[in-house]
Design brief:
The protein is globular. The longest helix has 17 residues. By secondary structure, it is of the alpha+beta class. Helix 2 packs across helix 3. Strand 4, helix 3 and strand 5 form a beta-alpha-beta unit. It starts with 7 loop residues before the first helix and ends in a 6-residue tail after the last helix. The protein is built from five helices and eight strands; from the N terminus they run αβββαβαββββαα. The protein has a single domain, classed as archaeoglobus fulgidus dsm 4304 superfamily (archaeoglobus fulgidus dsm 4304 fold), CATH 3.30.2170.10. Strands 3-2-1-4-5-8-7-6 form an eight-stranded mixed β-sheet, with helices on both faces.
Length: 236
């Protein structure tokens, strides 16, 4: 589907919404680590069929202590909002919320394959979604979102090394070396969590065979599987 021209009025409306939601963001923990039982990994994948854009959102629930998968759910639908840089949540959040409705488990926290506070207006998908999920959230991105021409500083080549991404004297997120000899990932607070706890939780879920934490890694794998199955099917 060709992306329609996006009016400046619509973008201004989106910005206004982000500014209003930002008032509800608090980068302090509203929980104790020991209280976390289940964490949800969230990812989306897209495809085009008959000139129509579709997406699938997959959520994988993982036990915080055992790291075992507890539940997997997904939801597919037509994508109704075009891709606009800086406004990804408006495109993805409807699918996320529909997928959450299918969960039998009640996760204590959501981890998104994407950014949170590390965003032009501090309103990446992880932060934006938190307001509607009413749960602490974390953003974990594979690639760096460059903001205001600020590059990240490469962390040392050792597991757990990180450098803060500081823009105009404010910490937006971290470049984190989750394992030695791998590219860094980019972690940021979503909401109701601080950056040190965000880093601790992400590292808790790093295994030897991947640089990505288990929740978003499994969600990513699940989206590729479901997308492959759905590509030639019509969405009800």
């Amino acid at each position: 589907m060709a992306v329609p021209n996006v009016s400046s009025e619509l973008q201004q409306e989106f910005i206004k919404t982000q500014q209003e939601l930002l008032k509800k963001v608090n980068l302090k923990n509203n929980f104790l680590i020991g209280e976390i039982k289940l964490i949800a990994g969230v990812d989306l994948a897209y495809w085009n069929e008959d000139n129509v854009d579709y997406a699938v959102c997959c959520i994988v629930i993982i036990d915080y202590v055992t790291k075992q998968v507890i539940e997997e759910v997904h939801h597919s639908d037509v994508v109704k909002v075009p891709y606009i840089s800086g406004f990804l949540a408006f495109r993805e959040l409807p699918l996320v919320l529909e997928t959450v409705k299918k969960l039998k488990s009640k996760p204590d926290m959501f981890m998104f394959d994407g950014n949170g506070y590390l965003h032009y207006r501090h309103m990446g998908i992880a932060t934006h979604a938190s307001i509607f999920l009413n749960k602490p959230t974390i953003g974990v991105a594979k690639n760096y979102l460059k903001i205001k021409d600020v590059d990240f500083i490469m962390p040392e080549n050792r597991e757990g090394a990180y450098t803060d991404i500081v823009i105009h004297d404010e910490v937006y997120g971290r470049a984190l070396r989750s394992r030695k000899d791998v590219k860094p990932i980019f972690v940021s607070c979503g909401n109701w969590i601080d950056v040190d706890t965000t880093t601790e939780i992400v590292l808790h879920f790093i295994e030897k065979d991947s640089r990505l934490p288990l929740p978003t890694r499994f969600a990513d794998i699940y989206t590729h599987k479901v997308r492959k199955e759905m590509k030639s099917k019509k969405i009800d």
